[in-house]
From TrEMBL:
It catalyses: ATP + protein L-histidine = ADP + protein N-phospho-L-histidine. CDD domains: HisKA (cd00082), PAS (cd00130). Residues 16-91 form the PAS domain. GO terms for molecular function: protein histidine kinase activity. This is histidine kinase. InterPro entries: GAF, GAF-like_dom_sf, HATPase_C_sf, HATPase_dom, His_kinase_dom, HisK_dim/P_dom, HisK_dim/P_sf, PAS.
Length: 677
């Protein structure tokens, strides 16, 4: 490069100019020299190219020439002129300034000026000018990018905003950043693009508007690995492209929105005109971040909605009174709240070791028919149930163990609820369940398991309560039996004691002692019954008639009559318990008959055993049936505690009791299985 003086340079400065030769040869930037009064004494070719002037148009002139040619704005030149004055006056040693030059351009020039003292003591100012347009552009883009990200962060951090409000603000931020009028978020399902949120006045790019995916710009975005930016859509797509014909967008940029690993839709910006420049890497990166934000917000919103829904139905689940009710609430939640319409609940039947269907959705019945009962090992369901782990089968066609190879279902999730049962959700397309579905079902499973556990706990408590109630009733009945059975010998003892006191005869005192002995033996027998031992403990051969007469002697019924059909013969029995039996039969006749009731005891004519009859009102059909059900006698009603005690003695001896039909009065027949003599 020729770095010597050009035409129009001052000859006496040749020596000064030559001193800069080495510098000029080493740089590609524009170089100029100005004396202290502001006159240009030297310029190189690079500077002339930068400012668009020839050397002779600059050397010998001042930089006012650039202002006059409108290359530099007056306010920009004023800063430069001030810097030159400061250097000339020695106020500063060097300074760097950045200017915008040219008309209707974004060209930026950085100028560095410094004062240079020659060997002879004279001074001038050396300047270096560099084109920094690209650097400044990148700096502005970085600054704009940071501003967008800061705004995005602020919008995302505002917890009071709904997703709809956030989406509208983010779209507006993107439109401002790209200087494009349209911004829209789409959802893509079954080859249809639906606008979810939008800004701008394009009639087809409004919420709820939809179009076939193949007629949309977003089809290219979805098919791409990254995002798609078109500066001139007509040139890239062609005027006959169906999307261009429908939407007539001149430029477009869009990125996929992913929720987890699944495609949700697209996040896009566009204009009805071509763009004057390509989308930069920075702009592409920002749009990609906006798409990622949209995916994250949609995922968060879905999960929060499900959490709120689970909270709402948790009390309903925990308040359920049966497993079936829990299953119904569960499947309704899965179908409506989780938007999983093909779902069912199987209950584990431990008795038969099968999984029985309890509840299934209408869509499940429509697609696969009525749910079957699964025997162990019949289907994948058993593997999941036995494992106790949630399993997501992304493609059932790849599972050789599938229950029905002809099933239209392609994917399925199994959610075991411990050993209570299992929930299933299915779909006719593969890989239909995302992470939100799985995590939501995991949380639901915890609620369902707790609800079923609570139901079973309540059932157990109810059973225990019923058992305790029955036990209390039995204790009350036992207390009544004790009081009833002890009344007979106690009454006899009191009566004999009264006679003994009056007569002072030993035989009456002996009868008192005998009655007390009977009471002691009876108490022992009753305690054995209370402990569950219904067997007799002292069976021996007894004369039946003395037992009958002694039992009658304890009956406090002076007007009643005992009739004994001789001979009664012998019997193998426990004496105390046999006295208990007759005492209760006699008391029952007296209590239910008239004061002058007649009670008759005699042997059975055609069988071993005996009967007790009276001329009272007799038994009703209901009472007769209850008494004859010996295993249920503890719960009989309306027949009296005494008769309940009778059936207990009969059962303890292995005898049988029947109540035959009679024209009048009551008759009880007891067959002992042994011949009376």
């Amino acid at each position: 490069m020729d770095t010597g003086p050009h035409d129009g340079s001052l000859g006496d400065n040749e020596e000064s100019i030559s001193s800069y030769r080495s510098i000029i040869e080493a740089v590609q930037d524009g170089i100029f020299i100005v004396n202290l009064d502001g006159t240009i004494t030297f310029v190189n070719d690079s500077l002339c190219s930068l400012v668009g002037h020839k050397p002779n148009e600059l050397v010998g002139e001042t930089f006012d020439t650039l202002v006059e040619s409108e290359l530099v704005q007056p306010e920009e030149f004023d800063r430069f002129d001030t810097a030159i004055d400061n250097l000339a006056n020695g106020d500063i040693q060097d300074q760097a300034l950045t200017f915008e030059i040219g008309q209707d351009t974004d060209q930026m020039v950085e100028v560095r000026v410094s004062k240079h003292i020659r060997d002879d003591g004279t001074a001038d100012i050396v300047g270096v000018a560099r084109d920094v347009t690209e650097r400044e552009r990148r700096a502005r883009e970085a600054e704009q990018k940071q501003e967008v990200l800061a705004k995005l962060y602020q919008v995302g951090a505002e917890a009071s905003l709904t997703f709809e409000q956030k989406a509208e603000r983010i779209l507006s931020i993107g439109c401002e950043y790209l200087d494009l009028p349209y911004g829209f978020l789409t959802r893509v399902e079954e080859d249809v693009q639906e606008i979810v949120h939008a800004v701008g006045d394009h009639t087809l790019l409004q919420p709820d508007e939809s179009a076939p995916l193949e007629q949309s710009y977003c089809r290219k975005t979805i098919k791409s690995d990254g995002l798609v930016g078109m500066q001139d859509a007509r040139a890239e797509l062609g005027e006959t492209d169906r999307a261009y014909e429908l939407f007539e967008l001149g430029c477009y940029i869009g990125t996929k929105v992913m929720v987890g690993e699944n495609l949700y839709g697209t996040f896009c910006f566009a204009a009805p005109y071509d763009r004057d420049r390509q989308f930069t890497d920075g702009e592409r990166e920002v749009i990609k971040l906006l798409g990622q934000w949209a995916g994250y917000e949609i995922e968060r919103q879905r999960f929060e909605e499900r959490l709120e829904g689970l909270h709402r139905i948790s009390q309903q689940l925990l308040g359920a009174e049966t497993t079936t009710e829990v299953a119904e609430v569960t499947i309704e939640t899965v179908a409506e709240l989780f938007d999983l319409p093909v779902s069912a609940f199987w209950k584990y039947d431990a008795g038969d070791d099968v999984l029985r269907p309890v509840v299934e959705t209408d869509d499940a019945v429509r697609i696969v028919g009525e749910a079957p009962t699964f025997e162990r090992g019949d289907a994948l369901l058993w593997e999941s149930f036995d494992s106790g782990e949630i399993r997501n089968y992304e493609d059932l066609a790849e599972q050789s163990e599938a229950y029905n190879s002809e099933t239209p279902l392609r994917s399925e999730v199994h959610i075991p609820c411990e050993k209570h049962g299992i929930i299933t959700s299915s779909a006719t397309e593969p890989r239909a369940f995302d992470e939100i579905d799985i995590e939501s079902l995991r949380l639901l499973e915890a609620l369902v398991t707790e609800a079923i556990t609570a139901v079973k706990r309540e059932e157990q408590l109810a059973e225990r309560g019923e058992a305790l109630q029955r036990q209390n009733e039995r204790l009350e009945e036992f207390a009544d039996v004790v009081a009833h059975d002890l009344r007979n010998p106690l009454t006899g003892a009191v009566g004999f004691l009264e006679v003994a006191r009056k007569t002072n005869e030993a035989q009456h005192f002996e009868r008192v002692e005998q009655s007390l002995d009977r009471m002691e033996q009876l108490i022992d027998e009753l305690l054995m019954i209370a402990r569950g031992d219904r067997q007799t403990t002292n069976v021996r051969t007894l004369q039946l008639q003395p037992i009958v007469e002694e039992s009658w002697s304890y009956t406090d019924a002076p007007k009643a009559t005992l009739s004994v059909d001789d001979p009664l013969g012998e019997i193998q029995a426990d004496e105390t318990r046999l006295l208990q039996l007759f005492g209760n039969l006699f008391r029952n006749s007296v209590e239910h008959g008239s004061d002058d009731v007649t009670v008759e005891v005699g042997p059975l004519a055609n069988d071993t055993g005996f009967y007790v009859a009276d001329d009272g009102p007799g038994f009703s059909e209901e009472s007769r049936a209850e008494i004859e059900e010996l295993e249920e006698t503890e719960g009989v009603s309306g027949t009296g505690i005494g008769l309940m005690s009778v059936t207990d003695v009969v059962d303890a001896h292995g005898w049988t009791l029947t109540i035959p039909d009679t024209d009048h009065g009551a008759r009880i027949e007891i067959r002992t299985g042994q011949r009376s003599e």
